[in-house]
Structures are given as C-alpha cells and as structure tokens.
Amino acid sequence: MKTTDDLSGGTRPDVSQVPRILVVDGDPTIRRIEASLLRQEGYAVDIAADGGADWSALSTTHYDLLITDQEMVRRSGAALVGRMRDAGLSLPVIVTSGLALLEIITPAAEPMPWLNAFIERPFSSTELRATVQHVLGQGDGDSADNPSQQVALSLPTS
Fold first, then answer.
1. What is the mean pLDDT of the chain?
2. Is the pTM above the cut of 0.90?
3. What is Dmax (Cα atoms) for the chain?
4. Which of 3, 42, 118, 141 could be stapled to 11 by a disulfide with Cβ–Cβ 3.0 to 4.6 Å?
5. Are 36 and 80 in contact (CB under 8 A)?
C-alpha cells in the first residue's frame, strides 16, 4: 500500500490508493468484526446489512472488493452479486459462510463464476487478511498457504 509523508514525520496511507471494501452480512456482530480486522490492515471499509443497504452502498460508492455472506435472511450473496452484475457493476467478490463450499455449490446449483474466493466460518484474521490481499493482488501470489483460495468453483456433473 502506498504511503505519503505525514506532517508529524511519519507516514500514513495515501487515501487515493487505499482499497475500499464493502462488507455485507445479516449479522451485525460479524460485520463489525470483519470491518475492524480490515481497517486494522489499512483498508477503507463500509458495512451494510442485507436487503437494501447493501444495494444502496454498491450503487452509490466505488468499491474495490465485496465481501458478502452467502446465506442471509433478505437476500443471498449470490442474489446480491447477480443484481450487481445485471447493473453492469464488476468487482471481485469474496463469499463467507458457515456452510462448507460443497454445501453451497451443488450439481443443481447455478455456477458461480463471479466468486473470487470463499472463506468458511469460523475463520482467522490471518486467513481473512491473506484472502483479501490475494484477491486484490497485494499478496505474494502464493496461495499454497491459503486454503480458501484452493476451491473448485464448479462440480462435475454425472
């Protein structure tokens, strides 16, 4: 992340270069935890609940990354991304879920080519940080230490 000189003699992130992330989750505690972890890493983070605030944020603000829960009460992560794509918005997507990826992606489910990464809950701050860095192209490019990057996004049909 680029920095600029601060008048106090230190450096601070160059806000024009700080990636902006939207965290969408129906659980306010999960939203706050994820946002706090990402802010500690220097990202600009907005949070939104599912069902309206999520779309309002996406349609009015430029984001570099969307992190969304898949299973929410009012709208699934897939439905939110579908609406986003229908509107011509394109940005990387990380899905989080308490369900295993294989419970979400079944042979009968629609393919999810829009999915850049999946993180199964519970996850560590290290896993979240590494996944975000990888998806934003800030990591070292080595996904061997990051199991969330090693997922099959479609299942073979028989």
1. 75
2. no
3. 64
4. 3
5. no
